[in-house]
Amino acid sequence: EVAPKESLGNPQPSQEPERVNVTTSSEMVSETQTDAAAEERSRNQKAVVLLPEIPEGTKDAIEHVCELFRGVLMSTKETAKTSSKDDQLHQLADFLHFRNLIAAQPNLHSGRALLPIHLDHPRKDGFGVVIVTIAMEGGATILLQDAEGVQRLAMPVQSGEAYMLADRARDACAHGVLADVGGEHRESLNLRFGLHDFVCENGSQIEGEPSLPTIKSDKLPVIPARQVLQYWETSINE
Description:
Helix content is 22%, strand content 26%. By secondary structure, it is α+β, with helices and mostly antiparallel strands. Residues 1-13 and 200-216 have low confidence and may be disordered.
């Protein structure tokens, strides 16, 4: 049955979502940047939106995931050999709270079986001190490789499972994703917690970096990007 025309009301124009630019500033983009990299930056800039309100149940679900992975980090403490390592793992566990979530980032294979091995650069679009990825649809094999290309690991992940990149797995390893056969339209969700700064722990500017203000926040934990980049100085173009 078709409703009478007068009962449909006047159509409301669709509201454009508020967009957030988290891509690298133009002052920091290399002159040798490839066309493909520039195109990716443009896509990322258009894709990031600020939700006017959080869907019901989202916070509880993310807090549950955080609790599970905090337990993983804290259980790792039992085998840590030094108190400084204990402190580092405790700090990383503290990042895993909804209040420290910077972005929820959908990842779509869009017909590609392989997402090549790459580093999530902390000062570019790969921000996040701790990154949790949830496999939403389709299975895959997660590929990890250290900065020297010596140590490699392959880890299967099925739909509904999740994995975390933290500590050396986040800082000292690059990663890629190979979808299962027939899974070229696989989807996942990255939860990115915390941010890296542009300064050293003692507050001094990192040599060779642009002069930018230090990020200071009582509510948001921020740590030096040097924690990641120390492993990659000779292998990536910052």
